[in-house]
Amino acid sequence: MFTGLISDVGEIVSIEERGQLRRLRIACSYDPASIAVGASIACSGPCLTAVEIGQSNWRCWFDVDAAAETLARTTVADWTVGTRINLERSLKIGDELGGHLVSGHVDGIAELVKVTSFDGMTKFDIRAPKALMKFIAEKGSVSLDGTSLTVNSVSEDEFSVLLIPHTLAVTTWGTRQQGDKLNLEVDQMARYAARLVEAKD
Questions:
Q1: CATH topology of domain 108-200
Q2: Gap between the Cα atoms of 19 and 67, Å rounded
Q3: With respect to CATH, is domain 8-89 assigned 3.90.25.10?
Q4: Contact call for residues 174 and 158 (beta carbons, < 8 A)
Q5: Distances (CA, A) of 81 to 11, 23, 29, 85, 87
Q6: Measured CA distances, 120 to 117, 146, 201 (Å)
Q7: What is the pLDDT along the chain (201 residues), one digit of tens a residue?
Q8: Cα angle value 1/88/140 (rounded, 5°)
Q9: Would you say the CATH fold of 108-200 matches that of 8-89?
Q10: Measuring CA to CA, which residue among 181, 162, 173, 179 is closest to residue 116?
Q11: Is the separation of the CB atoms in 112 and 180 below 8 Å?
Q12: How far apart are CA 66 and CA 76, in angstroms?
């Protein structure tokens, strides 16, 4: 489990195709001694497993394997060498839950349709897959590229989020542009509430 609070921004430094598996090496500022093989790390949304860890030129790196399912359902397939990604280590018992509960299981890919900056802040208008819009509510929570965000407004097939300067500075959101694809995970509470309503009906 995760909280959607980004703890580092990593960079893809190598990609290796292994049949239907794609191995990616991610450089970051984590202490390599603090990452165990098998650890779960949210990488711009998807929860991926660290399969190898090391250090090069005073920089930590870890390898993850992306299977065909991950490549088909997330933006991982679009990552290239140099792509910057939001990172979050898995939640530990006793950690502060400052965002909302995030599983690292991406529900779909959203599209950034408009970017509006003002007073150091930026508003992002986002189009989500139609089937997921019923889970997105004004003032509710949503995870986009692994970041826990509050929904500002909702229309038929779009919603908006507003990011403050701090979030723009410490995540990949500061460089986001119209047309970018985003990993979307809806709030688990909204998903279960909708399922209960469907079951009742």
A1: Elongation Factor Tu (Ef-tu); domain 3 (2.40.30)
A2: 10
A3: no
A4: no
A5: 8, 12, 17, 11, 16
A6: 7, 22, 46
A7: 899 999 999 999 999 999 999 999 999 999 999 999 999 999 999 999 999 999 988 899 999 999 999 999 999 999 999 999 999 999 777 677 777 889 999 999 999 999 999 999 999 999 999 999 999 999 999 999 999 999 999 998 999 999 999 999 999 999 999 999 999 999 877 776 776 776 666
A8: 65
A9: yes
A10: 162
A11: yes
A12: 8
Looking at this protein, which amino acid is placed at residue 162?
L
Look at the alpha carbons of 126, 157, 73, 188 in this order and tell me if their dihedral is positive or negative: positive
Domain limits of the chain? Answer: 8-89, 108-200
Does residue 130 contact residue 103 with C-beta atoms inside 8 Å?
Answer: no
Phi, psi of 70 (to 5 degrees): -65, -40
Report residue 13 as tokens: 């430094």
